Amino acid sequence: MTPSAISQAVRTLEARVGAALFIRTTRSVGLTEAGERFLSRARPAFEELVAAGEVARDLGQRPAGLLRLTVPRAVVPILLEPLIASFCQAFPEVEVEIAANAELVDIAAEGFDAGIRLGQFIAADMVAVRLTPPFPFVVVGSPEYLSRMGRPERIDDLRQHACIRIRRSNGSIAPWSFVNGNKPIEAIVSGPLIAHDFPTMLGAAVEGMGLAQVPEPIAAGPVKAGKLVHVLEQFAPMAPGVFLYYPSRHQVMPKLRAFIDHVKSRADERREGYTPSAQSAKNLRS
Fold it and tell me: For the domain that residue 20 is a member of, what is the CATH number?
């Protein structure tokens, strides 16, 4: 800065403060008592501003800090746990916080970096990264329940069955969705239990309380173990899959960029190894 620019800045500061801060002579410049007090009080704040800038700059240059994610509880054990474990191992300077809940939250307003949800529930203005291929919503029941109540062969047969339902975040109870050919169908079902998430529905079905309609990936384990059986497979609707989503491509911090890249690499591996059921493959081809 030129001497004249510095002098103008000093005059502006003194005018704003309302007191002379410097003693000026032709040979030297010193601080007045007001200037000494101003400096002693302003120095810590200035040093904090400098430090704050350095911290923010550091977070903007490398993956570090707290990464907050909002996710449905159902995806934590089957999708997120292995993903988070490998990410934390690859980026030890990033702390990951997972808020598992069924409600759709405003990730910007609630202070989250990103969220994970079924594709149909993600707002159009979000950037979405695919985590899974499309999959069907399947109806399952325990062998004991089906032995007791019979196996439904048509959608209308559900009127005679105990159906475990789910309450949406807006308070409404979701109907069950099906497809008959290319025609979508919604069925109003009834039963003894209303849940707020898919794991609860799945657990109730395993215990023989009734039929449940859930995403195929979360039912795959109990089905393989013989605890649940698919029914009405020919009417299963396809869901677009599970996605990671975040607000903007232009405001991505390195911690989130590292997680996105990690998600993409693991999603590619998962898609290569994913084997849908025969009916799912048929639905995908159609």
Answer: 1.10.10.10
Give the predicted TM-score (pTM) of the model: 0.66
Q: Are residues 169 and 224 in the same domain?
A: yes
Whether residue 246 is found in the same domain as residue 224:
no
Same domain, 43 and 122: no
Boundaries of domain holding 73: 65-134+241-285
Q: DSSP of 114-177, one letter per residue?
A: EEEEEGGGS-TTSEEEE-S--EEEEEEE-HHHHHHH----SGGGGGGS-EEEEB-TTSPBPPEE
Torsion sign over Cα 61, 62, 65, 71:
positive
- Alpha carbons 108 and 112: distance in angstroms, whole number: 6
Q: What's the CA gap between 203 and 205, in Å, rounded? A: 5
Is residue 35 a contact partner of residue 21, using CB atoms and an 8 Å limit?
A: yes
Element (H, E) at 242: strand 242-246
Q: Give 237's DSSP letter.
A: P
Instruction: Quote the CA–CA distance of 286 and 237 in Å, as a whole number.
Output: 12
Q: Mind listing the pLDDT tens digit for each residue in 231-276?
A: 999 999 998 888 888 887 667 788 988 998 888 887 666 555 544 4
CB 244 within 8 A of CB 118: no
Final residue of a domain: which of 59, 84, 102? 59
| Same domain flag for 119 and 245 | yes
